[in-house]
Amino acid sequence: MDRAYDRTSPRHGAGGRCDNRPVPQTHVRRGLALVVTAAVLFGINAGVTRIPIEAGLPVSTYTTIRVTFAWLVFVAIALAFDRAALRRPRGRDLLLVLALGIVGVAFVQWTYNVAIVRLPIGVALLLEYLAPVLVVLWVRFVRREPVHPRVWPAIALALAGLALVGRVWDGLQLDGFGVLMALGAAVCFAAYFLLGEELTSSPVEPLTALRTVVWSFGVGAIAMNVLGGWSETDALASSASMLGRLSDLTVPAWAAMVSVVVFGTVTPFFLYLASLRHLSSAKASVTAMLEPVVAVVVGWLWFSETLDPVQVAGVVAVVAGIILAQTARHVPADELPPPL
């Protein structure tokens, strides 16, 4: 079995166990289901996000509200169901939570929001989704763990598909700062998976997914309140068009923002972290490439955005790349390259 993919190495036992037993397939399927659900919710949220922003809410304020209220929801859940999640992490875990909150929660959203303003959204998505490549490179060359060679063509196929989906050749005149921010988003997104994996599957005392999000989003909320602020929040009191094919319908802008917080932030971020108790960061990040595909489909169904044959081929390529990456877990250990 691929240790970097199925968490069977002594460093990352299944669910935090320090052993060499393979992860049961039910656990793997559960992890994949969590990641796919999170990716679908994030993809749908790309459409919902437009409602409060088109109503006049600044992107910086949108991000601050999103992170702050998501943290409050996580705290409320912890108070109701698991007060142990409010216990402050200590030592190394505290440092990892600080890094996850600043880099993996606040900065990933800030850099991406800047990128999509300055770049074509397809280009921004393609650059952000270099994250799985960074994760696999980290696993192979920093952790020095074996990664099956099949992973590389799988990532290449998925990235090529994203390029087709985003029609990146339509945006060759690129804003340099926008490119820098999109690459920063890729680094931050990769860090989210890697840091989350370290916290939720430590062989000593793994943090629960709820405890991890409570504290990391608390740190992220502080960071975004410093960076983003609360300007022009009166836009949330207005009625907002649902845009696209639903433009004849209106909803309170604050209701769309509630949906962003609950279904576009709290639920998917929690599911991603929960999946890391069953999957490696490498497999989870590759599967998360479904998110921009879902966003494109949402744009087609909801906003009447064109989905031409080239983009359809890109969607197929992304899904094929993800499936190819998942099949790596069926490879016997003796077919893996040695650890570095």
UniProtKB/TrEMBL annotation:
<dbReference type="Pfam" id="PF00892">
    <property type="entry name" value="EamA"/>
</dbReference>
<feature type="transmembrane region" description="Helical">
    <location>
        <begin position="59"/>
        <end position="81"/>
    </location>
</feature>
<comment type="similarity">
    <text>Belongs to the EamA transporter family.</text>
</comment>
<feature type="transmembrane region" description="Helical">
    <location>
        <begin position="175"/>
        <end position="195"/>
    </location>
</feature>
<feature type="region of interest" description="Disordered">
    <location>
        <begin position="1"/>
        <end position="22"/>
    </location>
</feature>
<feature type="domain" description="EamA">
    <location>
        <begin position="177"/>
        <end position="324"/>
    </location>
</feature>
<dbReference type="InterPro" id="IPR037185">
    <property type="entry name" value="EmrE-like"/>
</dbReference>
<keyword id="KW-0472">Membrane</keyword>
<feature type="transmembrane region" description="Helical">
    <location>
        <begin position="251"/>
        <end position="274"/>
    </location>
</feature>
<feature type="transmembrane region" description="Helical">
    <location>
        <begin position="207"/>
        <end position="231"/>
    </location>
</feature>
<dbReference type="GO" id="GO:0016020">
    <property type="term" value="C:membrane"/>
</dbReference>
<feature type="transmembrane region" description="Helical">
    <location>
        <begin position="93"/>
        <end position="112"/>
    </location>
</feature>
<feature type="transmembrane region" description="Helical">
    <location>
        <begin position="31"/>
        <end position="53"/>
    </location>
</feature>
<keyword id="KW-1133">Transmembrane helix</keyword>
<feature type="transmembrane region" description="Helical">
    <location>
        <begin position="151"/>
        <end position="169"/>
    </location>
</feature>
<feature type="domain" description="EamA">
    <location>
        <begin position="30"/>
        <end position="165"/>
    </location>
</feature>
<feature type="transmembrane region" description="Helical">
    <location>
        <begin position="118"/>
        <end position="139"/>
    </location>
</feature>
<keyword id="KW-0812">Transmembrane</keyword>
<dbReference type="InterPro" id="IPR000620">
    <property type="entry name" value="EamA_dom"/>
</dbReference>
<protein>
    <submittedName>
        <fullName>Permease</fullName>
    </submittedName>
</protein>
<feature type="transmembrane region" description="Helical">
    <location>
        <begin position="286"/>
        <end position="303"/>
    </location>
</feature>
<dbReference type="InterPro" id="IPR050638">
    <property type="entry name" value="AA-Vitamin_Transporters"/>
</dbReference>
